[in-house]
Amino acid sequence: MTQASPEITRLFGGPGSGKTTALLDRVETLLEDETLTVDDLLVVSYTRAAAAEVRDRLADRLDVSAQSLKGNVATMHAKAYELLGLSGADVVGEPEMQAFCEDFGLEYEDEYRSARRRTARSTTIGNKIIATSQWLQRTRRSVDAWYEVPFQWDVEEVRLPPEIDPHAMEGNKYTPTWSASDDRVDVPEAIEAWRAYKQEEGLTGFADMLEAVLEQELLPDARVLIIDEFQDITTLQYLVYELWKPHMETILIAGDDDQVVYEWQGADPALLLDAERTEDVILPNSYRLPSRVLEVVNTEIRHIGRRQEKDLKPRKEGGAVEARSNPSMLDVVRDVRTTVGADPDATVMVLFRARYQLFQFLDEFIGEGIPFRMLTEQRMWTDRLTEYVRAVEALAAGETVSGLQTRRLADMLQDSAFGTNERDALFELVETHKEQSTETALSRLEIPVAEIRVIAPFAPAPEAAADMVRKVTSYQRKSVAAYFAGPHAGMDPGRVRVGTIHSAKGREADHVFLATDLTEKVVEQIAATISDDADAFELADGCVPALTDSERRVFFVGMSRARERLVLLEDLISGAPTLPVSVLLHNELRETPVEELVGAVAGDPVSPEA
Predict the structure, then answer these.
(1) Alpha-carbon span 153 to 159, nearest angstrom
(2) pLDDT, tens digit, for every residue of 139-191?
(3) What is the overall mean pLDDT for the chain?
(4) In sequence order, which residues have a C-beta less than 8 Å from that of residue 517 and are 6 or more positions away?
(5) What is the DSSP string of 509-527?
(6) Contact, 114 vs 148, CB < 8 A?
(7) Cα three-residue angle 258-311-28, rounded to 5 degrees
(8) How big is the chain by its Cα radius of gyration, in Å?
(9) pLDDT band at 113, cuts 50/70/90?
(10) What is the Cα–Cα distance from 88 to 85, expressed in whole angstroms?
(11) Percentages helix, strand, coil for the chain, rounded to the nearest 5?
(12) Are the C-beta atoms of residues 92 and 197 closer than 8 Å to each other?
């Protein structure tokens, strides 16, 4: 069924306001209409993780399996992938990007080698070219507009537009723009070559998928369209939305223009602010932020000129906001350790602007033996590692071991743990118990320690667990050794989470430690956005003197994760450009001590030792 003017609700939800819950409430209300079924719904979220969360929560409400909703709850790219009938081999990946750059003579850095580096991948010329091509597609600009991307370009490395490039030659109409000896990278030429390479190899990028949906006018089989995190969609995604919109009966777009974290990928908050709608709904309460934290995050975000005011009511009065200037990484580790020890139920989140920065924290933190989760994709205290550790603990205590934990032992123990026995015998033991039990979940299946010991007689005691494990990273091995040497036995790894600000989107913790250090890439983007003259933007003793709206929204997301206490860490990463707390809160450099700055805003000065 098509309808030229569908009913469109725009839902604004600030941090902790229950936006996803409100969205799911709307879905349940819509399904009360007997003519509507779940198959008539399409729920679109920006990231795979967000889509998976909505899918799981909706499945719980409807009492169906999450797998059954995979076609109804997805990212826009996943829906495009389905509509186009693509397979995994059709999609561009890291190997293809690297192969092109090698063929074209461009330096390229993959995501794994760059994880610990101070410089970001997008400061490497090959990565920068590909990112620019994607940005142009997402923002629907032509290749000629490449210089509008929020990057700074090295004039000694690439040819700038002739009107501003000091090496461009001038003369009559027959004078070539570039000398024969000018071997700098021609960015438009490289972008066109990358696009031609994809076409020749039959490869499709994420932006290419959406362009193909537009060109072929492909429509989902749905009557109701719901788009969550609408603030993060790009111009290209918005055009897909415009294509689908007239074919829907009901539309709900939900988001928060203050929480745009993907502007560097082409997201435009104006698309949410200017969206056509039948009605507006603004959620009034934050079920996360206490009053002092809410006052500080409001002070930070209100420097943005054009935004939707939410006027949230706090979860409760109180809370705490603290700041540290130039702390050592060891100081932060001690603070986290003290916080964890003071309250056995407290949750902690430690956030950084870039991945390389969090590795500096991990270098100091792992020795504490505190189990933790990574919000990013790095392998640390994974479920798999936790199950191995719990199995070793159960063996030492003489308790039964779950079927899932026994499988982890079978997979992760060194060969020497089995003596002359075969590793497969332990897998077979799990299968035997499963066949003899009515319990279908391996996590609830109980296997006696004595039976495991028969097959793995040299399974390690806790103090040897790190030496006897295989298929782990060096970080994981060190973490296990420190855990068993420390006082944190049995602690849930989910109590402490470490990640980037972007990876914390949609999450919360009682105590949030937020480093305000930036990266060269971020400073480059700030300079390119704020000043037409890149040389006019100068750091003041390593401090950024101004902040773009884009970066302000990113830090707003990080700050607004705190349920009880927010700790701002200024100038934590040695040698990195830092965002001063005064610029964060007041948009200007001030000499006032950071403790006084946050205390004045929160209404309750707090000493750094508190």
Answers:
(1) 9
(2) 999 999 999 887 878 899 999 999 999 999 987 777 788 999 999 999 999 99
(3) 91
(4) 352, 353, 357, 569, 571, 572, 573, 576, 577, 578, 579
(5) EEEEEEE-B--HHHHHHHH
(6) no
(7) 75
(8) 27
(9) low
(10) 10
(11) 45, 15, 40
(12) no
Q: In the numeric block, which tokens belong to residue 154?
A: 């090295």
Contacts of 41 (CB under 8 A, 6+ apart): 27, 30, 31, 72, 222, 223, 224, 226
Question: Could you give the 3-state DSSP secondary structure of residue 588?
Answer: coil
Contact, 213 vs 80, CB < 8 A? Answer: yes
Q: How many residues are present in the chain?
A: 610
Q: Among residues 432, 476, 437, 439, which one has the least CA distance to residue 454? A: 432
**Tokens in use for 76?**
């826009």
Token pair 């490039």 in the structure block, residue: 165
3-state secondary structure of 49: helix
Instruction: Extract the tokens encoding 126.
Output: 């090959």
Compute the half-sphere exposure of residue 3: CA atoms within 13 Å on the CB side of its CA: 13
Is residue 534 within 8 A of residue 527, CB to CB? The reply is yes
Alpha carbons 500 and 232: distance in angstroms, whole number? 17
Residue 548: phi and psi, rounded to 5, are: -80, 160
- As a whole number of angstroms, the distance between CA 238 and CA 255 comes to 14
